[in-house]
Structures are given as structure tokens and as C-alpha cells.
Amino acid sequence: MSLRLSTVILPYRRWSEGGRSAWVRAEQLGFHTAYTYDHLSWRSFRDGPWFGAVPTLTAAAVATERLRLGTLVTSPNFRHPVTLAKELISLDDISGGRITLGIGAGGTGFDATALGQEPWTPRERADRFAEFVPLLDRLLTEDAVTHEGRFYSAHEARNIPGCVQRPRLPFAVAATGPRGLELAARHGQAWVTTGDPKLYENGTPEQSVEALRGQLEKLSETCASIGRDVTELEKVLLTGFTPDRGRPLESLDAFVDFAGRHQELGFTEIVIHWPIPDSDFAADEKVFERIAMEAPAQLA
Asked: Within 10 A of 249 (CB to CB), how many other CB atoms are there?
């Protein structure tokens, strides 16, 4: 099976000052999907420009024609399923059915406290995620939804006419723990990982491959436990957070070697960050474009 190559375009540039051109160029380069982060602010970008994911994707939908678009990832940190569903249905309509929702449990970054709340514990994040995803699934597939939950409620929430994509736009569920993997198995059309974060600082690429192999095995076991064929899910690796860091983008050969090793594990989509100068995602733009244009054929 051919390996899909996608990119993440961080929303740090004004639309008129390079924002629009990146999305248009992503389509020209032949990327399968161009994602963006759904944060209120993020890490080293906190004190600089940072724009909203949904408006950015809406503009990107208008600026492109074929490129799939999505979040990587949206979380409950500052989202509510009812309002998010309405935005996603609108976005799916504007794009002509080209939206994928990457969704995860969230973390302890700036998003976790921006609304004035205390950061949730890992258990609280997992509890909320376990309610958030099934409710969002219903909101995107049913005309009217009423739900009284522990964390989220909906009272006759209307979502007519629903998504262009049927029965709804696809979910790419980011998860490594047992509860998250079960959500991916039950509700996902794709599963997303960034690898094992414990290996980022001092691990080796070989250790990372083994950790990812273990995650894929757990995903397969979880799918089997609920009677789902694991081959129905796309397996997505968001790069830049394994011990390899930026090395795969140093040359075409380096990337093909990296992507090929992960394709052999069972990954069906590799996501690389659009180059950002003077950041963790700095890369030679000419090499990046060569990878986009030539690597997929070598990995077919």
C-alpha cells in the first residue's frame, strides 16, 4: 500500500503575509492532507502571532480545491462538542467534504488554563475525552441530539443538514493509553501517534521504532477486543517528536529511509511540519519540497 504524505502548517502567519501561500503551495506539492494545530497558543509561539484553527481551515478550504484539510489535534481543553460540531459541519460544507478531525485528550499546556480553570489531571482528561468523542460522533450524525452527561450536555441540539461526508467527517483519534485506543477503535477512521514522549530526549531511533511497534500491537488488540478489523483504520505518525527530530528532513534519502522503516511497521500516513525558520521545525525549504514531490513515488 502506498504511503500517504501530509503536512502540518502552524497558524502563526497573517493570511496576507505567507499564511495563504503555504496552503496553496501544499496543494501544488501534492500533499494528501494539510493539517493545523488547534491551540489558543503553543509552546515557544505563545508570545507571537497565532491564529484560530477553524477560521484558518475555512480560509484554506476556499483557497484550495483538492487538498484534504484538518486539525492535528483538537481537544476538549477549550472546546465543547455542541459548538464544535456546528463549526465542523460548516467547515465540511465549505470545503466540499475535505475535512478530517484530528482529536485528542489534550495536555497541560497553555490551553489547559486559558479559560481560568485548574489543569485537569490525566484521569480527568481521559474521563472528559471518553464522553466528548461519542457525543461529538452523535452530533455529527444525528439531526437532533439531547444528552445529559457528567461533563457535557446537549439539549435538542440541531445539526441539519449534517456533514457532506457520510455518515460524518472522519475522526483521526490521537491515543496511546487503553481508554484512548478504545475510542480510536470504536469511533476513529484513523489513529494518530507522535511516538513515545519518554524517548524524545535520550532515546534512540531504534527504541522509538520498537515503542511504536508496541503501540500498533495494542491498537490491533483493542480493535480485536471489540470485533473491529484494525486494517479499517489509517495509522498516522506525526513526526518531529521522536528521537529522530528533524533529521528525516535533512535530505530526500534520509526521509525515504525514515518513512520506509515506519511504513514497514504499518503506518499509512506520515505527517511532516512545514518549515518554520528559527524554530524546532526549521528545515531547508528546497529539500522539504523535494521530499514532498519525490518521496511518495519511492515509497509506493
From this structure: 23
Residue 7 phi, psi (nearest 5): -140, 160
> What single DSSP character describes residue 81?
H
Q: How remote is the C-alpha of 32 from its chain's centroid?
A: 13
User: Would the pTM count as exceeding 0.85?
Assistant: yes
Q: How far apart are CA 268 and CA 274, in angstroms?
A: 19
What is d(CA 33, CA 14) in angstroms, rounded to the nearest whole number? 21
Contact by Cβ (8 Å): 31, 292: yes
Instruction: Kindly state the helix (H) or strand (E) to which residue 87 belongs, with its residue range.
Output: helix 81-95
Helix (H, G, I), strand (E, B) or coil at 26: helix
Burial 30-45 (b: 16+ CB within 10 A, else e): ebbbbbbbbbbebeeb
- Cell numbers describing residue 143: 439531526
Express each pLDDT in 13-24 by its tens digit: 999 999 999 999
Query: Cα angle vertex 277, ends 39, 30, to 5°?
Result: 75
**What pLDDT sits at residue 230?**
98
The three three-digit cell numbers of residue 202, written as one number: 535520550
End-to-end C-alpha distance for the chain, whole angstroms: 7
> Cell for 276?
518554520
